[in-house]
Amino acid sequence: MTKIKNRLKSNSPGPFFVNSSCIDCGSCWQLDPEHFAQTGSSSCVHTQPKGQQEIAQAYLALIDCPVAAICAPKELTANLSADAFPIMVTKHSAGDVYYCGWSSKRSFGASSWLILGKKGNVLIDSPRWSAPLAKKIKKMGGINTIVLTHRDDVADHANWAKAFNCARWIHQDDADAAPEAEKQVKGLDALPLGEHLTLIPTPGHTKGSMVAVLGDQQQILFSGDHLWWNKEREAIVASKDYCWWDWSEQLKSVKRLLDLKISWLLPGHGSAHQFMPGQWKEALEKTLRHAERTSPNSNIEDFT
Ligand code: SF4
After folding, report:
1. Are residues 73 and 93 in the same domain?
2. Nearest Cα residue to atom 2 of ligand 1
3. What is the mean pLDDT of residues 134-149?
4. Is residue 197 part of a domain?
5. 3-state DSSP call for residue 154?
6. Residue 82 located in a structural domain
7. pLDDT at residue 79, rounded to an integer
């Protein structure tokens, strides 16, 4: 009853709705833009799902929501499976990549990703603990390594590490956020983790922020909160407003990624994006030109 009472007026009429506990993390509309959208400082159901396939898609957003702000009548969702996550994002010669869902309030609904590596699976950042997700990942080979890109997105790392008896990597400068992590990246040098995954320290958003790069060609960039894609501006952006450590250092760290050959940008927050060959460098140069024009007060989230 409370949930219905708290239904936001911005929702379209119908059985699915967002209630007032929404924290505006963006997970729902990034996952299912056909039915969810941001409106003001929260999200809403802009179009009701129709038919089983669309209802199943909206149900994924319901499961993913970190604060259970998405509501739907039980009779509509009773037959749907809670083990739909992780869902495939892209195939890659160095390991197929999946979106984990089950976002955590502790990381403000940040995205986490699973790489099915040939020599063991890697979890990039932590979803909230979920028995159905753990069961599914176990069937997919478990988790060998957890990479924590920075202090904000560690969420339930302890549960995942315990369940899969795997090592966690975090940068030394953010290590107080996960002091149990077994491995630390130090300094600014890139660190290869196995044959196909490299960790690159990118201080700025936090002192110990780092990104992970999969592959040598057509690379996949797991960017944490260092940068992301903005669909409206059609640009790579970062945010000075959400920079917790040093904005000028963050801009320097953005430049460090210029020569990568990125085919997919998969961030912790903000939109993911696929790039055709050559587009990454062009897009990042455009963003950096904007930042240099307006430095030191530039906020490349305002980039147009
Ligand atoms: S996933 Fe939940 S908290 Fe996040 S924007 Fe959507 S309704 Fe709000």
Report:
1. no
2. 65
3. 98
4. yes
5. coil
6. no
7. 86
